[in-house]
UniProtKB/TrEMBL annotation:
InterPro entries the record matches: NLP_P60_dom (IPR000064), Papain-like_cys_pep_sf (IPR038765), PG_Endopeptidase_C40 (IPR051794), SH3_16 (IPR041382)
Keyword Lipoprotein: no
Protein name: Cell wall-associated NlpC family hydrolase
Gene3D superfamilies named in the record: endopeptidase domain like (from Nostoc punctiforme), SH3 Domains
Compositionally biased intervals (Basic and acidic residues): 280-289
Organism field: Enterovirga rhinocerotis
Keyword Transmembrane: no
Length: 289
């Protein structure tokens, strides 16, 4: 479905996705070509410049569709959530293997050999996806892109986490970063999206999209439970239980847990307004202990 939302519409005055032909005006249309993210974490920016606003990030293994590439940047769409923006060309690989495993640890290292004493080649963050090139060796999984990762920090991509709140809890203390979606820095909606994805639940990227599309609204004043999602204008968090909120926020500049009542009062007094929505996911998607 075509959208006028610039975050999700692969359309510029000079170029647009072939799939949007007839719904948007552009000088030309292209089908694009698919690739994958081959860096631990890749910035997707609003403009093709290193100082442009960071809209979101893509993690290792994430599929993208590239429509244009020049001057070291690719104009592309992330295929998991549809976000459109500019990625450094250096983070893209056309021949990257399909992922077989996903990182379940907060962060893990890639080593040149199955030996923890060797200097790491790089790191992988929670949610990153990699392809295996062989069987586990001395506790390490060989990766198709080179190197070895500790197998216990990974899970097959077919497996789903039973409790997305527990996934979000692993990121407690991770620093707040506007547009971030990794253990090195994450924002409120990135935390929700990443945690839900680990449980096999697709979610939009930004809080306004999540407020419009996740679960069903709860009546105002009704009781809350673990896994419920609470929204303000421009902010979102997950309920740890009936009273405590887990969220990445600019007050703590980190992922933190605090009483919902305290967060509500502080956000309102700080000019962020009242809670705008409380939503609950379907029963089959709710956290299971």
């Amino acid at each position: 479905m075509a959208t006028s939302d610039r975050r999700l519409a692969a359309a510029r005055p000079d170029l647009a996705d072939e799939r949007l032909r007839g719904t948007v005006q552009a000088e030309r249309y292209v089908a694009g070509r698919e690739a994958r993210i081959v860096a631990p974490c890749a910035p997707l920016r609003r403009r093709p410049a290193p100082d442009a606003p960071l809209d979101t990030e893509a993690l290792m293994g994430e599929p993208v569709r590239i429509f244009d590439e020049r001057d070291g940047y690719a104009w592309a769409q992330l295929l998991q959530d549809g976000y459109v923006g500019y990625l450094p060309s250096s983070v893209l690989g056309a021949e990257a293997p399909a992922p077989t495993h996903r990182v379940r640890a907060v962060r893990t290292f890639v080593y040149p050999a199955p030996d923890l004493k060797t200097p790491p080649l790089s790191f992988l963050s929670l949610g990153a996806a990699v392809g295996a090139s062989g069987e586990v060796e001395r506790g390490y999984l060989p990766l198709a892109g080179g190197g070895y990762a500790w197998a216990a920090h990974l899970r097959p991509v077919s497996e789903r986490e039973p409790d997305y709140v527990a996934v979000a809890e692993r990121l407690l203390g991770a620093p707040y970063l506007w547009g971030g979606k990794s253990s090195l820095g994450i924002d409120c909606s990135g935390l929700v999206q990443l945690a839900l994805a680990a449980a096999g639940i697709a979610a939009p990227r930004d809080s306004d999209m999540q407020e419009a599309g996740l679960g069903q609204p709860l009546p105002e004043g009704g009781s809350l439970a673990r896994g419920d999602v609470v929204f303000w204008k421009g902010h979102v968090g997950l309920m740890l239980d009936g009273a405590r909120l887990l969220h990445a926020n600019g007050h703590h500049m980190a992922v933190a847990i605090e009483p919902l009542a305290e967060a509500e009062s502080r956000i309102r007094e700080g000019g962020g307004g009242p809670v705008t929505m409380r939503r609950r996911l379907p029963e089959h998607q709710r956290p299971r202990g």
